[in-house]
Amino acid sequence: MLYYKTYIKDESAPWITFIHGAGGSSTIWFKQIRYFRKEYNILLVDLRGHGKSTEVVWKKTDSFKTLAAEVIEVMDELHIESTHIIGMSLGTIVSQTIADKYPDRVRSLVLGGAIISLDVRTKFLLMIGRISKNFIPYMLLYKLFAYIIMPRKEHEESRLAFINEAKKMSQKQFVKWFSLTRLINPYLSHLQVSTKKIPTLFLMGDEDYLFIPPVQKVVDNYSNFDLEIIKHSGHVCNIDQPDIFNGLSQKFIATYS
């Protein structure tokens, strides 16, 4: 089972489950825990291969559906019938997969730095990564991607947070996670259609240049999807602008609690 940690307000309080991105861990939510634990029960998980969830045996058939099922396993262990989910970066794909496969368990989604489609630039980067992943040290690749996705000086805190967490991953785990990105665009398109009835808030930094355009496009097509742009923020907007991220998330979640 995945490593998890809970903060319990009381039995009647709604749950929020936080799902980090690739290379991160549950520690990236340090600027959210104190804020949300005042009104909600909190579930933090380390996805497989990250943080303290290191005892993992990968199979060739493992996919984002596998990752989603592992989060549900933790919820079952804790008798959590339904939860709001806040996801970040690649964790937004896991979050939407949970909503797709287990819609009755999800009350709402808040997707920060959401990845819902890959453009030509991102596909090229991933192709280079897949070609070189077995012979270039993974931290070199990870740092390269971190600087491309979070290039500015004001992104330094969030960039370093993810790099420092990624150092705890093994090369094998990094390669397995990288393999999940193959043929990802058709799957992402499926998720947008299959989760369109789930209330969803996208929170995107205005400097998240790789991932904002497809989010803006999909929000225009689905009435249950909302988008808020956070100024002076990059890809990891929960660290770059935590007060704004927390306030917008709480306001949205309260509507569906």
Describe the 3D structure.
With 257 residues, the protein is an alpha/beta fold. It has one domain: Alpha/Beta hydrolase fold, catalytic domain (Rossmann fold), CATH 3.40.50.1820. Helix content is 45%, strand content 15%. It has helices at residues 30-36, 64-77, 91-101, 120-132, 138-149, 156-166, 171-179, 184-194, 212-221, 237-240, 242-255, and strands at residues 4-7, 15-19, 41-45, 83-88, 106-112, 200-205, 225-230. The chain has a seven-stranded mixed β-sheet with strand order 1-3-2-4-5-6-7, with helices on both faces. α2 (64-77) crosses α3.
Characteristic terms for this protein:
257 residues; AB_hydrolase_sf; Rossmann fold; AB_hydrolase_fold; AB_hydrolase_1; 2-succinyl-6-hydroxy-2, 4-cyclohexadiene-1-carboxylate synthase
**How many domains, as an integer?**
1
Low-confidence residue ranges: none
Major beta-sheet overview: 7 strands, mixed
Please list the strands of the largest sheet in the order they lie side by side: 1-3-2-4-5-6-7
Q: Strand-residue fraction?
A: 15-25%
Return the CATH class. Answer: Alpha Beta
Strand-and-helix sequence, N→C? EEHEHEHEHHHHHEHEHH
Q: Name the CATH superfamily classification.
A: Alpha/Beta hydrolase fold, catalytic domain
CATH topology: Rossmann fold
Organism: Macrococcoides bohemicum
Domain AB hydrolase-1: 14-114
InterPro entries: AB_hydrolase_1, AB_hydrolase_fold, AB_hydrolase_sf
Protein name: 2-succinyl-6-hydroxy-2, 4-cyclohexadiene-1-carboxylate synthase
